[in-house]
Amino acid sequence: MADIFSKEKRHEIMSRIRNKDTKIEIKVRNWLFHHGIRYRKNYEKVTGKPDIVITKYKIAIFVHGCFWHAHENCKLCRFPKTQVEFWKEKLERNKERDIRIIQDLTKDGWNVFVLWECQVENNFDETMNSLLENILKIKAEHEKT
Ligand SMILES: [Zn+2]
To answer: What is the spatial distance between Cα 112 and Cα 116, in angstroms, rounded to a whole number?
Structure first.
């Protein structure tokens, strides 16, 4: 499908959105680090290359940008007004991919968490505290056995 933007313009738009994704990832990682959680980032050996991985406890955390991962009923996932079909198809594919990755990881015994950009931005403390709680629970169970 033809793109109305020039390659350069398209690249600029996409990188702006991607950078925003990265910023929330960093925010989440820093918080975890300050709370004593040690992790690997973008761990390639794990299906789907999760943004944050705690290998010891098989915890995989994805920080999803609402736009790229097509967060349903989310204000941050507004489709561009141009090239609607192009974007719809693209984001639909991303979404299907995410579902497949989470299924595969879960089947493999991973604990998968997805943090959405809108949660992180609007409810940071609550989101992070509940994530930490879950991590500590898994850790405690792991240490029992
Ligand atoms: Zn969202």
So the answer is: 13
pLDDT digits 0-9 by tens, 79-106: 778 888 888 899 999 999 999 999 999 9
Q: Which three-class secondary structure state does DSSP give residue 120? A: helix
Read off the DSSP letter of residue 116: E
Q: Residue 20, CB half-sphere, CA atoms under 13 Å: how many?
A: 17
CA distance 51 to 105: 14
| Ligand 1 midpoint to CA 89 (Å) | 19
Give the count of domains, the chain.
1
* CATH number of the domain enclosing 133: 3.40.960.10
Position 113 in a domain: yes
How many C-beta neighbours within 10 Å does residue 76 have?
A: 14
Measured between alpha carbons, how far is 73 from 93 in angstroms, rounded to an integer? Answer: 17
Q: Give me ligand 1 centre to Cα 71, in Å.
A: 5
